[in-house]
Amino acid sequence: MLKDQHGREITYLRLAVTDKCNLRCFYCMPEDGLHWLNRSELLNYEEMLHLCKLLVSMGINKIRITGGEPFVRKDIMQLLRAISGIDGLDQISLTTNGVLTAPYIPELKSLGITSVNLSLDTLDAGRFFAITRRDEFAAVMQTLDELLSHDMQVKINAVVMDGRNTQDILPLVGLTKDIPVDVRFIEEMPFNGDSHVYTGLAWDHVRIMEHIKQTYPAIAKVPDGLFSTSYNYRIPGHLGKVGVIAAYSRTFCGTCNRIRLTPQGELKTCLYEGEGLNLRDLLRSGKNDIELKEILTHAIGHRAKDGWEAEALRAANSPAHESMASIGG
Fold first, then answer.
1. Which of 2, 202, 265, 302 could form a disulfide with 10 if both were Cys (CB 3.0 to 4.6 A apart)?
2. What is the pLDDT of residue 48?
3. Options 3.60.130.10, 3.90.640.10, 3.20.20.70, 3.40.50.150; which CATH number does 2-327 get?
4. What is the pLDDT of residues 168-193, one digit of tens each?
């Protein structure tokens, strides 16, 4: 098994297949987009598959496909078909904004992808446009309907933003009443890819839950999974669950079992880490699997204790305003 120096087993890879996205959520990237990577700067599918197989052989048993938006990358299903065939991989899951996802849902399920995280910050079409700068609310809701009709496990991820969508917290909680969907509220993080300064957190996980409890006083804590990033709750009589993810407060770091691979091949052992290990260049320089395993073991064995330490150790040349799309959050 892969272990860091703090004794944590690393079993979960978040693979960002692209930095591009068809939305422009203001908390993730500038309105005009980012400086998109050239194709040669990205890992190609063969390199992604090679690294996935290597990491699975070292103990990774779950891979989540992220972006950017995964379905923006051409032939994404080709990669998913290949990853689904890796011996020793127990679970593949997917995070998507839902704009392009609906037509692929039957095949996703046939590949064994039964869990999908859907990014949806509001149930109001007008606020959706204001947040994402795109008129795609109907497409996202169609994807939600298709996922549910195919009995997929759906987790809705909603970033809570002061003055933007706090009025959507209770309507989103209301979704859990009649459909078996988990709604998870995420603290806003300082990865907007823009030059404006992150001024701090107005709605942390404590305030979010206090707000929900005012309307749903009977909401009760339920057990969290071993490596859960969310604190989970259930309202009596509701089919789904409610969760809060302390992404900025970083209260779950002590049990973190995940690593990230960015579209350009950087290994990040923490979301808040600065410049990571460049696996793309190591692959292209001809490093063999034995050498790569030694390098990976060393990198993971020198992992930060938590997100606060990782942030403090950020390299001086790391971008001051990274985008979540470029680091595969």
1. 2
2. 98
3. 3.20.20.70
4. 999 999 999 999 999 999 999 876 54
